[in-house]
Amino acid sequence: MAVFLPLPLPLQARIRLAQGLWLFSWLLTLAGGLTLISSGHLLAQLWHLSPFLDPTCSFPALPKTALAAGAAALGMGVVGAGITRASLDAARYPPWRGVLGPILLAGTLGGGGLLALAVGLALALPRGLDAALENGLGTALAHYKDTEVPGHCNAKRLMDELQLAYHCCGRHSYKDWFTVQWIGSRYLDPNNQDVIDQIHSNVEGLYLIDGVPFSCCNPHSPWPCLQNQLSSTQVHPLSDPRQPNLNLWEQGCHGVLLRLLGGLASTLGTVLGITFLLQVLVLLGLRYLQTALEGLGGAIDGEGDTQGYLFSGGLKEMLKSAFQQGLCAQRPVPEEVPPEAPAEEVPAEA
Question: Which of 25-34, 172-181, 234-243, 272-281 has the lowest average pLDDT?
């Protein structure tokens, strides 16, 4: 029966293949470790920024899947390095000979499947970050004033820390604070006529002002931060065009977080792509080395030339055999008919 994708492997080619696979296995181990580090860093950032993401966001599935794929790739790299090192010594290879097949199957279906899934998620999931941050930051701004509401009492502290740490203000700009009531009701005097007029002037009954929280201020500003009456032309200019962010942070948190998480996802996707390529090369090389050594009884320096291959039969024969096996499995087994009893002989009359 013809083999699928045969490759002639004389002695020197077998030795070079084993030595090259040893190097690629350690490269796969390094790539798996980088995948673990990149996915762990992204997962930590998402955990820190989870209050500003929509709860329905599926983006955290990317680093979780990448963690599992990185661990599988790291393990495959270490095992592959051990197998290729042992294959150069006929006395050390026999213990690996019986388990190499299951290892290749597990590496292909498990490790390769996880890496392929992680690469697909790295390409698809970042597209939903824009909407997830848009909804999450909008919710965070709306609950900024709810310092005494269970479940939202930390919203103010988290938003202030976000704006101070990432040098941003509002969702897209400082003007986003003009559309939400960010001052708590406990700090408003219900008997003050200005407060009453301000609330009645809004259809939603909110106390809106053209000001921003202190966390929007640049602490390195040369003058006191301007937080109120920002829409008035008589107030000192908001910022100097030649020196942006001189008074308030001009960039919104949405753009800052989108660039941060998008950049981390892009880096992780690149690492996953390299890891997937190395995994494929190592698995293919190990399969060719395995089948070549099987033809020599497990000795890499055995006499005579041999060839490696991916499958023992051609692709057409494999598909035909699988199809026939499927038909046989679906076809009902006919019931056995019990044999008929032999007819009794009637004695002849005398």
Answer: 234-243
Contact, 170 vs 252, CB < 8 A? yes
Tell me if 51 sits within 8 A of 104, measured CB to CB: no
Q: Whole-angstrom Cα distance, residue 309 to residue 62? A: 35
Number of neighbouring beta carbons within 10 Å of residue 299: 14
Handedness of CA 218, 220, 226, 231 (dihedral sign): negative
Helices and strands per DSSP (H, E), number in the chain? 10, 2
Q: Where are the domains of the chain?
A: 7-129+257-322, 174-250
**Rounded Cα gap, residues 181 and 205, in angstroms:** 10
Reported as a single tens digit per residue, the pLDDT across 188-241 is: 877 777 888 778 777 677 888 888 999 999 888 777 888 887 777 665 554 555
pTM surpassing 0.85? no
Q: Answer left, alpha or beta for residue 336, where phi above 0 means left and psi between -120 and 50 means alpha.
A: beta
Distance CA 116, CA 72 (A): 12
Q: Which helix (H) or strand (E) holds 9?
A: strand 7-9
| Distance (Å, whole) CA 210 – CA 200 | 16
Tokens for 36, please give them.
């673990």
